Amino acid sequence: MTYEEALNYLASLGKFGIKPGLGRVSSALNLCGNPERQLRFIHIAGTNGKGSTTAMVAAILRSAGLKTARFTSPHLCDYCERIVVDEQPISHAEFAALITDLQPAIDQVSASPDGSMTEFEVLTLAALYYFASRQPDVCIMEVGMGGRLDSTNVIVPVVSMITPVDMDHMDRLGNTLAEIAAEKAGIIKAGRPVVIARQKSEAEKVIKAHCQQKNAHLYAFGDDFSVTDISTTFAGTSGTYCTIKGIERNYEGLRINLYGKHQAENAATAVAGCEVFAANTGRQLDSAAVQRGLTEVIWPGRFEIFQLPQTLVFDGAHNMHGIRGLVGALTDLFPTQRVRFVTGILDNRPVEEMIAALAPLAAHFYATAADYHGVASPARIAKAAADQGVATSVVEGGLHALRQALSEAQPNEIVCLCGSLYLVGEVRSALQNSSENSSATRKE
Fold first, then answer.
1. How much is the average pLDDT of 232-236?
2. Are the beta carbons of 60 and 270 closer than 8 angstroms?
3. pLDDT (tens digit, 9 = 90+) per residue, 186-202?
4. What is the 3-state secondary structure (H, E, C) of the chain?
């Protein structure tokens, strides 16, 4: 099949929605010779920061000389961004050939009593099959949703990592922080070490209990590693990292090529995860490689700054934890400037709370929606903004909304597009193909 046909085939599987469970992907992997057994993994779950942490882990280990693979979701601009080896996404031709090769196994499993495989299950299968053909030194696998029943949980990692856990996907993961944390902690494997970011006490208690039950050594932010002296400037985010008890190595003045104090904590978790991986695979992690990797890491759509010549920020913050990080970064970098927010949010998010958190910085809201199922109506966003006393425009189409915001921005204002990675990806792609791109300069 062609690349377009492969995408259409995957889209046809999308109608089966989300069906948590490991049976279908396990069966498909078995039919394909269990390629996952040839690979070493770092497995990353959490509510926020999974993608950034995955990118930093990959950058550090690649800088240390390892051949790295990573599996992330969703994509931002191109579907093949999800499956990457040494920072090279799988090509369209390779992806089409991969799905063609796997289709008989997919169809055989889908005809079984377990029912049809979902799009994400097929992507997990495809990533593992492709990685086995490329034989990387390490595969960094980001959980899609939850952990315990996520299709990526068929792997047995060298180290599991859990980024901050917060309220999200309550319709599927639970209505309390403890229930959600239990789903995330489902990636913990017997006897395999675990590295966790700073957690709320309710979540940390659950994760620690899972580690004890699984006899899995826990390395926790604050107890076993930390970051101090955090600062965020246009040169990036910096801090001093103290890592892991037993290794006792300090990294002073590390700079991360990502913005926001929350990224310093993500980086501390990433460094700790890399050190635990190195210690458990007989490797030595060079401090220069850590610095080089963090300086070079790029993760588009996460507080990504452009000059058009107006200042434009893309941020995929899509829940309250992410919005709080966005507000903190905006306050640190633009303390005297008001913000024109171009905002589209999924309907299952706490829309009103998210808008209320952004409102103190807002000069104007442009309520819009991504071309994606399950989006909140722009009218709902506009009402939430009006309830906060902020002027609002309803604009159909994210690119149109962005153009209006840029045209109306005053010299002392910036424009920020946020609320959904789907919105960020859609508009970022459209912007790259438009006339505005000729004058856009990305801050590095």
1. 89
2. yes
3. 999 999 999 999 999 99
4. CCHHHHHHHHHHHHCCCCCCCCHHHHHHHHHCCCHHHHCCEEEEECCCCHHHHHHHHHHHHHHCCCCEEEECCCCCCCHHHHEEECCEECCHHHHHHHHHHHHHHHHHHHCCCCCCCCHHHHHHHHHHHHHHHHCCCEEEEECCCCCCCCHHHHCCCCEEEECCCCCCCHHHHCCCHHHHHHHHHHHCCCCCCEEECCCCHHHHHHHHHHHHHHCCCEEEECCCEEEEEEEEECCEEEEEEEECCCCCEEEEEEEECCCCHHHHHHHHHHHHHHHHHHHCCCCCCCHHHHHHHHHHCCCCCCCEEEECCCEEEEECCCCHHHHHHHHHHHHHHCCCCEEEEEECCECCCCHHHHHHHHHHHEEEEEECCCCCCCECCHHHHHHHHHHCCCCEEECCCHHHHHHHHHHHCCCCEEEEEECCHHHHHHHHHHHHCCHHHHHCEECC
Beta-bridge partner residues of 101: none
- Please give the single-letter amino acid code of residue 428: R
Task: Grade residue 16 by pLDDT with cuts at 50, 70 and 90.
Answer: low
Residue 223 and residue 255: Cα distance in Å, rounded? 23
**Looking at this protein, which amino acid is placed at residue 183?**
E
Task: Return d(Cα 79, Cα 323) in angstroms, integer.
Answer: 25
Does the bond joining 89 to the residue before it have cis omega, within 30 degrees of 0?
no
Structure tokens at 369: 């929606």
Predicted model pTM: 0.93
pLDDT tens track for 367-418: 999 988 889 999 999 999 999 999 999 999 999 999 999 999 999 999 999 9
Give the dihedral sign, CA 60/61/67/70: negative
**Chain centre to alpha carbon of residue 189:** 22
How many CB atoms sit inside 10 A of residue 240's CB? Answer: 16
pLDDT value for 440:
55
Confidence band for 17, pLDDT divided at 50, 70 and 90: low
Q: How high is the pLDDT of residue 438?
A: 47
pLDDT for 144 equals 92
Cα-flanking dihedrals φ and ψ of residue 169, to 5°?
Answer: 50, 40
